[in-house]
Amino acid sequence: MFTVNYKNLTLSFNEFHNVSDKDMPQYGEYCLLELKNGDYTAGDWHPQDYKNKKSTSGTFIRGTADSIDSEEVERWHSLERYDLTECLEDEEIDWINLGPKKEGNRNAQFKGFKSFADKKNPKDEQFCLLIMNDGSLAAGRWNKWRHEAGGAFIYAPALASHSSDKVWAWTPLSIDRFFAMELERENEKKREKKMNKNPSADPELFKYGMDIKVYYEKALEKLREEFSWATITMMKKRTPVWQIARLHGKYVFGQISKSYYDDSDIVTPWTEGATADEFIDFLCRYTHDTVKNSNPEEKFKFGTDINVYLEKAFNNVKKDYRWLDKKIIKNTWQYDIQKVDGDLEFVRRYRNENDFSVFNVESAERFIECVEHDYQSAALQANMIVASYEPQFGHIDLHGWNLERYIFYKLMSGDYKVSVTAGNRTTGGSRDFFITPYCFEAKTYEEFLDRYLEIVPDYSFGLGKKELLPNEDLKKFLGY
Length: 480
Fold this sequence. Notes:
Layout: E1 10-13, E2 17-18, E3 30-35, E4 40-47, E5 58-63, E6 66-69, E7 73-78, H1 85-88, E8 95-98, E9 108-110, E10 127-132, E11 137-144, E12 151-156, E13 160-163, E14 167-172, H2 177-195, H3 212-223, H4 232-235, E15 243-247, E16 250-258, E17 265-269, H5 276-292, H6 296-299, H7 306-318, H8 326-330, E18 333-340, E19 343-350, E20 357-359, H9 364-382, E21 385-389, E22 397-398, E23 401-411, E24 416-423, E25 428-435, H10 437-440, H11 445-455, H12 458-461, H13 465-468, H14 472-477
Parallel strand pairs: 1-8
Antiparallel strand pairs: 1-9, 2-7, 3-4, 3-7, 4-5, 5-6, 10-11, 10-14, 11-12, 12-13, 15-16, 16-17, 18-19, 19-20, 21-23, 22-23, 23-24, 24-25
């Protein structure tokens, strides 16, 4: 690695290009920018008019939804033309001139470089000048990885970035609005932490003490007047649950969630009253429907033997998925009825996983429907594809998503399914639909489509009767 002491290193940028002279970089050229307010940043030049070389209108892109308008820029200096390798291999060097230094020519100097090797990271959202491991220069906005060590410098749309292991040394550029917002957020967190060291408690709001369980128990007493089966476990199925939390130097009844950015706590306070009894009444209203739909007599109306429910689900699915047998579902989802926090619950786990997860359903029928869905998916996966047909279609917009694939498959059993894939520029998904035997009981292809489009409607999945009815190849593929 380079032998220069980065802590003593200064980079001096000379021979800036003036925007006022209509002297602009090449399209896509990444540049160090001096703004009209004296700040420094960097960006990738995108002119508004690609054909007009003298046009100064455009933006310097720094990342996703992050750009600088050319009207804010005074001068620019290319970062792309340098390889500092030779200089950085001379341990005596502590000053590097970039571009010829002429009398009267404005220059900009950057020092105070730091290294990840010293376990030092930039602050979140800080835009930095970078010396890369290959001796080149770059820039980017620091984005710390959420669930692991390290991070990356974002420098272009779609989160294009330089990972920390590619950067030899970095130094901050000027504070911009994104970094200023992050600094304010951090300062607010510090102020909040200081205020919450010794919070006050309103005696009217917390007259039954500081244990949230007491308030749930008092609400439970009221709920049992209407629902004899009510338990605190049932009440807490309504999430998020309520807690006693610290906020702005006071104790509050609140719901706590985690920040997407740094996993810090976000407290949403209860604001519908000012007394403990009003909060207890609110808890009753908040959990009312959840408790109402947790009636054990409805939920376990067929008893507490899980096999009774599984057999009903299996027989229901078997009517259409005629090839389904017990071997197919043996190694998929496993189900049981277990006590969870004192209440009986339907639970499931996948194959040989250790932990069960709770099926939060209100009735036996709803649980059976969920099992049916799992059995249907397992049945389709077990039925091999023997042929396929993909109808041609142009651009189809599905409420902001684009239809990408629409394929009919013939299965080994002689049955059919269709797979639909749609997406936008950042995400997408696929769904498989079994074409039930009821559809094929239709005497004509047109009648078949009427039944089929009840399963895969054109307004949701792109192709309708207008596109499918004239398709003779599809008609033949489906056996009509």
